[in-house]
Amino acid sequence: MSLEVIHGGYAWPGREPVLTGVNFRFDGTGVMSILGPNGAGKTTLLRCMLGLLKFTEGEARLDGRPVSNWKPRDFWRTIGYVPQAKLPGFASMTLADMVVLGRSAHIGPFSLPSDADWEVVDRVMTEVGIEHLAGRLCSEVSGGQFQLALIARALAAEPRILVLDEPESNLDFRNQMVVLNVIERLTEQGLGAVINTHFPAHALDISTKTLLVPRHRPPIFGDTRDVMTEDLLSDVFDVRVRIRELDFPERRYTCVAAVEPRHGGA
């Protein structure tokens, strides 16, 4: 199950293009990271890929078919989407009630969740480690637990590919690791994942493919270790970057350090 963008571009009406020359093909295995500076259009790209916005140039394709040609119900059974975490709309819902919303593509418009739907909810909450919080209100759990619930909601659709917008942002060290470990474990079970991230080290740590998105220039796509170099990261983020491998008894970890701005100023 592939997800690709061909000659993608997007411009808000009356403005300069925020995206131009986007080309990549994700084969639906492992993790693909999308990385770039603020304002480069990463979230806009995700929304265009998913048909929530329409590319002003080019198109997105899922399994070789233009996204616009997919029936919404079939599309959202194939793609699970985890947007940036925002609590207010879910504050008064239990985690289980929020997660079951992910079954919408499987439930008729005037139907209630069946026992089978609730079994899926139990399973996906167990997969991400929050089954014991099913009855808690979304407003009563931590940011990390809420993020895992959003992932569980997307998994409830039983998709082939998971698309996540900054899933580890605003989380502490431990919860960042928990979320990344869950994503890695899911991909080991056969799910594909596309992650928009602000953390170069995370892309190097878990992704096999990376799309590096500069401002107002065509993105660079390829194997993560080929794309995530000191020179390319320095150019895209306009800072001097150093990459070092650190060996610990438990594992090897890649450290990415922004040493100083290349041209001074903010």
In CATH, the homologous superfamily of the largest domain goes by the name P-loop containing nucleotide triphosphate hydrolases
| Count of distinct strands | 12
- As a whole number of angstroms, the C-alpha radius of gyration is 19 Å
Q: Tell me what portion of residues adopts beta-strand conformation.
A: 25-35%
Quick one: CATH class of the largest domain? Answer: Alpha Beta
- What structural class do helix, strand and pairing data support? alpha/beta
Supply the CATH architecture of the largest domain.
Answer: 3-Layer(aba) Sandwich
Helix content: 25-40%
- Tally of separate helices: 9
Output the strand order for the largest sheet.
6-7-8-3-9-10
Q: Which descriptor suits the 3D outline?
A: globular
What separation lies between the terminal Cα atoms?
41 Å
CATH fold name of the largest domain, please? Answer: Rossmann fold
Mean pLDDT: 94
Main sheet, how many strands, which sense, barrel?
6 strands, mixed
User: Into how many domains do the coordinates divide?
Assistant: 2
Spans of at least 5 consecutive residues whose pLDDT stays below 50 are none
Strand/helix succession: EEEHEEHEHHHEHEHEEHHEE
